[in-house]
Design a protein that fits this description.
625 residues; alpha+beta; ABC transporter transmembrane region fold; four-stranded antiparallel beta sheet; three-stranded antiparallel beta sheet; elongated; disordered C terminus
């Protein structure tokens, strides 16, 4: 692909914008599982309470919590709380939210929210639950606990992960708020709606990024495809016979259409996956391990399975993908020969032979395509099996972690999503192993056309023909050999063709008659010797100047789509009507041109005039053209 990198230069802005948008899309997609985890962990399990340090707490509950705090934690709580009756906002302000709060209760100060009160209440709540067991918040049961049990619980809380401490603390905070008469259902609903609205906003922004990235890459692919088609067509237009011998017409058509389409599809779709998949894969891996490091081995297993699948597919299907364009070339070649030589095929009743050739080329392409499609078709069920199997493993072993209080439900759900993102990223990467080589092969085929140098080139210091041109053609000891051939087609040919005389070349088929004539307009250059026009070596002339001085009638006539007049003006676009009538008379076409509806302006399809229905004998057959 980088062989055509110069075609990307005009679109570097679109490419950079697309990469930034894809990066933004990936980051937003990686954020959504965290928000979902928050809804489960905080919104559902914690009742929407985000902090283990309550905003307000009654005196009895505060005294209970202090029993399960270390001296350092108790000091942090004393610094963060103030009596409700002495708060700056006033008791009435707090009673709007907590109706049962009294003056001897406690409220969190503005500065206290940033203190160590959060951790202190988290550890105290965990220690309380561990010490009390099934007794919960029953004061009578808690009063009977001895100090050694409380100290052991406090020490256990000190080494417990913060995520579990926070969840336990938030559950107790909800009970503190209920004791104060607060509407905990409203707190929960507000939290879920807030996080849900944030997820909706992220999803909308993600959609904008995805659509914008797709738009940029579509413009990039379409622009590069247009430029490649233009340059390939322009390059082929200036090919001489030597270059046309190097590439078959069918192959040039395939390179100008199918190969460029492969490159365009890669830039529009493949480049998106090539940029997006690694970000999602690495991001999902990092985020998943941060959420649940205990299940890292499940991700490692998923990666191993995906890698094995990708390598197998790469080894089996890639060689077939590389053959695809050759089979398309072959099918186009057979089709073109059949259509171009249709009259010859019919004349010799060779339809079965041509059908057999087409059937062979068609079977080769069909068999190769079916093999590739079957290989790709197996990807989806195998990927589904891997994804579902990994999900089951995560749920099975994650459930054990939840039962052991070392993992939260929301974190497990987020881990499942991150695992799926990693697996899907590897699926996209596996597709890249197929798209990139195929696009690379197509790009190389296009590059071969663009970098082909004309064997016949204009001289740096061209000479000029005399004015007027007399038309004396002289061959001096001319020999010619086709490139790669073992022997000369023409050997030591010398003659002079003078104006006003008829010079004819007679010989068997393949003796070199056409080759000899093709040396005059420099469709080929002589291997040795000289071809002179009015005493000037044709190799010293510009091709355009030489060919403007030559009238050339090829063995096979061809009409271009348009009108009869536009075809006659192929040699001189400024020719007037009188010149056109004279040319038609020389070609002995005046009689039937005049019979056509529209005369010189009658429409012509490629190969023959377009005859309206009911034209009868007034419409010439393609053979007469």
């Amino acid at each position: 692909m980088w062989k055509l990198k110069r075609y990307l230069k005009p679109y570097l802005g679109l490419l950079a914008a697309a990469i930034l948008l894809l990066f933004g899309q990936a980051m937003l997609e990686l954020t959504l599982p965290n928000s979902m985890s928050d809804i489960v962990n905080v919104g559902l399990q914690q009742g929407g309470i985000t902090s283990a340090a309550p905003q307000a707490i009654d005196a009895q509950s505060m005294a209970l919590m202090r029993r399960f705090m270390s001296e350092a934690d108790a000091a942090a709580v004393d610094a963060a709380y103030t009596p409700a009756g002495e708060s700056a906002e006033g008791l009435a302000h707090w009673q709007e939210t907590y109706p049962n709060l009294t003056a001897d209760g406690w409220v969190l100060t503005a500065d206290g929210a940033a203190s160590g009160a959060e951790g202190a209440f988290s550890r105290a709540a965990y220690a309380l639950v561990q010490a009390a067991g099934a007794a919960g918040m029953d004061p009578a049961a808690l009063a009977g606990l001895d100090e050694s049990a409380i100290d052991a619980a406090v020490q256990a809380a000190a080494v417990t992960p913060d995520s579990l401490l926070g969840q336990t603390g938030a559950v107790l905070v909800k009970r503190f708020y209920q004791a104060l008469g607060a509407d905990t259902d409203a707190i929960q609903t507000r939290y879920i709606l807030t996080v849900g609205a944030r997820m909706l906003g992220l999803t909308l922004l993600l959609t904008v990024c995805a659509v914008s990235a797709g738009f940029c890459l579509s413009r990039l692919g379409a622009g590069v495809g247009r430029d490649l088609r233009r340059d390939v067509f322009t390059r082929v237009t200036y090919f001489n016979n030597a270059e046309m011998d190097q590439f078959s017409t069918a192959s040039l058509i395939t390179r100008s259409t199918n190969d460029i389409t492969q490159v365009q599809n890669f830039l529009s779709m493949g480049l998106r996956m090539l940029c997006f998949a690694p970000i999602m894969g690495l991001g999902g891996l990092v985020m998943g391990l941060r959420k649940c490091p205990q299940l890292a081995w499940v991700l490692a297993l998923a990666l191993a399975l995906m890698l094995a699948l990708i390598l197998t597919l790469f080894k089996v299907a890639l060689p077939r993908f590389k053959k695809m364009q050759d089979f398309v070339d072959r099918l186009n070649l057979v089709s073109r020969e059949e259509l171009s030589g249709l009259m010859v095929v019919r004349a010799f009743s060779n339809q079965p032979f041509m059908q057999q050739r087409f059937e062979s080329a068609n079977k080769d392409l069909t068999g190769n395509t079916l093999f590739v499609n079957r290989a790709m078709a197996t990807m989806l069920p195998v990927m589904t099996l891997v994804m579902n199997g990994i999900s089951l493993l995560i749920v099975w072993f994650g459930g054990k972690q939840i039962a052991a209080s070392s993992l939260q439900v929301g974190d497990m759900m987020a881990f499942i999503q991150y695992a799926m993102q990693v697996i899907m990223s590897f699926l996209f990467i596996s597709l890249m192993f197929i798209m990139v080589p195929r696009a690379s092969v197509s790009a190389d085929r296009i590059r071969q056309v663009l970098e082909t140098k004309n064997a016949v080139a204009d001289p740096q210091d061209p000479a000029s023909l005399p004015d007027p041109v007399r038309g004396v053609v002289e061959f001096k000891d001319v020999s010619f050999r086709y490139e790669g051939a073992d022997a000369d087609v023409l050997e030591h040919v010398s003659f002079t063709a003078r104006p006003g005389e008829v010079t004819a070349f007679i010989g068997s088929t393949g003796s070199g008659k056409s080759t000899l004539v093709n040396l005059i307009p420099r469709f080929y250059d002589a291997t040795s010797g000289q071809v002179l026009v009015d005493g000037v070596d044709v190799r010293q002339l510009r091709q355009q100047d030489l060919r403007q001085a030559i009238g050339y009638v090829p063995q096979k006539g061809l009409l271009f789509s348009g009108t009869i007049a536009s075809n006659l003006r192929t040699g001189d676009e400024n020719a007037d009507d009188e010149t056109l009538r004279a040319a038609a008379a020389v070609a002995q076409a005046t009689e039937f041109v005049e019979k056509l509806p529209g005369g010189m302006d009658a429409p012509v399809s490629q190969g023959a005039p377009t005859c309206p229905a009911g034209s009868g004998s007034g419409c010439p057959s393609p053979g007469r053209w």
